[in-house]
Amino acid sequence: MYEFHHEYMASLYRDKCKIVYTDMDSLIYYIECDNVYNIMNRDIDRFDTSDYEVDNMYQVYKYEMTI
User: Fold this and answer.
1) Within the chain, how many helices (H) and strands (E) appear?
2) Measured between alpha carbons, how far is 35 from 3 in angstroms, rounded to an integer?
3) Residue 56: its H or E element
4) Which of 28, 37, 38, 55 could be disulfide-bonded to 21 (CB atoms 3.0-4.6 Å)?
5) Is the pTM value of this prediction over 0.85?
6) For 28-53, how does the pLDDT look when each residue is reduced to its tens digit (9 = 90+)?
7) Of the candidates 34, 39, 35, which has an alpha carbon nearest to the alpha carbon of residue 9?
8) Residue 45 contacts by C-beta under 8 Å, 6 or more apart in sequence?
9) How far apart are CA 7 and CA 38, in angstroms?
10) What is the DSSP letter of 47?
11) What is the CA radius of gyration of the chain?
12) Where are the domains of the chain?
């Protein structure tokens, strides 16, 4: 999670992204951008979207991470 935040999110969004909540295996962000779902689709291997429906309203691909 440290690598994801510092090397990916912080370098991508700089001061436009803040962690608002965290638990054992999740980071919840406030992000200022045009469309975060476009970025998620571009870098889908960094996100676990296994709970998303295949035809979700955000048009995010379904991807299940394995750890």
Assistant:
1) 3, 2
2) 23
3) none
4) 28
5) no
6) 999 999 999 999 999 999 998 988 89
7) 39
8) 63, 65
9) 19
10) S
11) 12
12) 2-33, 35-67
